Amino acid sequence: MSVRTKATKGQIRNAETLYGKMNSGTWKPKTNDGIIAGLSSQTIFLIQTIVSGTLLILFSQKTNVSLVFLSNPLASIFGLVLFSFVTTIGYLKIRKNRKSFLKVKEYLENLCNGRLKFDVVLENGGDYAEILSLIKKTQFEFRGMISQLIGNAEIVKTQIKALTYAVEHIHVAFQELSKAMFSLADSSIVTRESSDCIFQEMDSLNQLICNIRNESNTVQSESTEAYQFSLVGKNRSDKAMTQFLKAKSQIFKTSETIKDLGEKTKAIRKITETITAISEKTNLLSLNASIESARAGDAGKGFAVVAGEVGKLAEQSNKSAKEISAFVSELTAKILQTVSDIQEGLTEVEVGSLEFETVQVEMNKILKNAEETKISAEKINGSTEGSESMSGSVLENMEKIQTQLINTSAIVEELSAAANEQKQTVAAIEESITNLDKVADRLDSVAFRFQF
Which residues cross the membrane (predicted)? Predict the structure, then answer.
């Protein structure tokens, strides 16, 4: 039988106080017993009968009333028998009610002492039959309520064990989470410091790349200028070759042509000197680029290869320029020789023609080397431009990473604070579970006090 009740905190406290007094034996029901209340029902009925008969006799004598049954013996006997019968019936009724009252008292004492294992007899209940029925109903109600109380106490204990186990796991998980948070916070700090160092190194590298790009622009400009000089020299050598071939038909103009050729050899000497200076600067720049690429590590391997090629080209250009310079010196000597020996004939002119062919070949080499140097310088310039763009992108990404690391540190701090708050919450839950366990034990002690 299910019994559901709602009690206030005050009622629960009063019930607990009463229960404690009952267990200690200090509780006694409040009664207003007097002298009459202490008499039994039979005694009261007997007193009422005697008083009634006495009053009846006194009343008849006092008022001189002539009663029929007093003058007639048979009537007197009949009246006495009838009075005795009625009195006996009343006494038996009172005795029956007395037994029912004792049953009621016994049942109530059992209920009061927590003994619910008794049978309530409803037959011959007399005037207390309704009370006995209520006692039996109350007994069933108490049995159902105590059974439910014991069951609920067992369920509460089971739930407490599960909650305790879960809270222990949660507590361990929060401890591990706290350790992980602290480790993550330390890692984020170290990562942030490392990113700051990387950002500074990348900034320095970006400055270095900008300097290399400026130098490569200078090299490109100088290589373009050298190419233009070489192209001019090639054109002039072609013109000189044409004019030299015309010397056969213009023998009388040979002297002027040779003078002009002497001036052109001076220009060629200047060009070779310029080429030599450019090649030396190019060689120096390639050496600097090799040093800077070596500092850059793996990222500068491409620059090292290009710098090596530029150095080779510079050495070749320097070598060719020296050869041209030597050749020009020789050519000048031969021109002077030709001035003095011009009249020796066209045979010497043919020799000069062959020498000019050699000069043209060398000029082609110079032009080719100058063109290759120009192309290499353009490649270096393009590479440095791309590297500058990439380094700028890397710097931008590093700034984003730093911002993200700052946000991550803030999030880690918030999570650590939340974990600490949750640890306090778990501690409060553990305290509540402990209190609930105590309440369950008290429920057990209350429930097992009853015998049913």
Answer: 35-59, 65-92
Query: How crowded is residue 9: how many other Cβ atoms within 10 Å of its Cβ?
Result: 7
List pLDDT tens digits, range 166-200: 777 776 776 676 676 667 666 667 666 666 676 67
pTM: 0.33
Spatial distance between the Cα atoms of 141 and 147, rounded to a whole number of angstroms: 10
The predicted structure's pLDDT at residue 80: 67
- Residue predicted with more confidence, 60 or 257: 257
